[in-house]
Queue: 2 jobs
Job 1
Amino acid sequence: MPQTGSGSIARPGRRIGALLIDYTAATIIATGFLGFDQFALPSEAGLSQFAPLVVFAVLQIVFIPTAGGSPGHRILGMRLIRLGGGWVGLWRPIVRTLLLVVVIPAVIWDADQRGMHDRAAGLALIRA
């Protein structure tokens, strides 16, 4: 992969920006359209406090195999590719998203600046 430009590994600033876009969209969908109250007191909230996280995960799992990345990735000029080439399939986005939701694998990077969630799924987030 090239060091810079199109096809290079996406840098942390873009990744964090995409994460913020996606989580904001998930929060708007969960609270505005689905009616979950994210700001309810813990005793009243029940599972609704996790609704944005669930919507976030669904957005990732649906958009990665169909659009090549989440809405945040695409807006910021990134896409996910399978390292061996070809379609990313269905299981890779699921594994990647579950690890992303856990957070720890996503904040541990290798020398190539790929998160452990991407490595485990055999994917790379590149600049489009």
Note: Residues 78 and 126 are 5 Å apart (CA to CA).
Job 2
Amino acid sequence: MQKRGCGIRTAADYRERLSPSLWALVAAAVCGPMAAVVFSPLDTTLALFIGLVVSLAIVIGLLAVSPVVEVRAGELRAGRAHIPVEFLGDPVGVVAEEARTARGSGLDRRAWHVIRGGIDGVVTIPVTDPDDPTPSWVVSTRTPDRLVAAIQRAQVRLRTPGR
């Protein structure tokens, strides 16, 4: 379901970019020195420049394509998808072993997944829309309690008249 707005942006109740961990960025940056080694027989200065450009391009690319999880204007957004909170049930946030189960053996293949390695927390939100074939959303988050609270606040605002 997609809503068209008039271009006015409201403040988000919750917003988190699921960026890669520092170790993943460091590992990606190692591609630069490998590229420099390839070009070092041609010219050392050129090789260093190419290595720097490759490292920066990969790190910036990883950060730029990181999905965003957001609760704004009565809608949950996770990556490319969004759904009004009126079609969501009670969210459940988990960490540690429960989160590993939610991302692994407990994962429903029909659910909408926005899962990122290196992020421990997971929030599972059931979809209550009878016309939606997706039974739930499973979303990685560094702060499951804050995402759960933001979804619940948006649901309360929706049910409270005069707001």
Note: The beta strands are 14-17, 68-72, 75-78, 81-84, 92-94, 112-114, 121-126, 136-141.
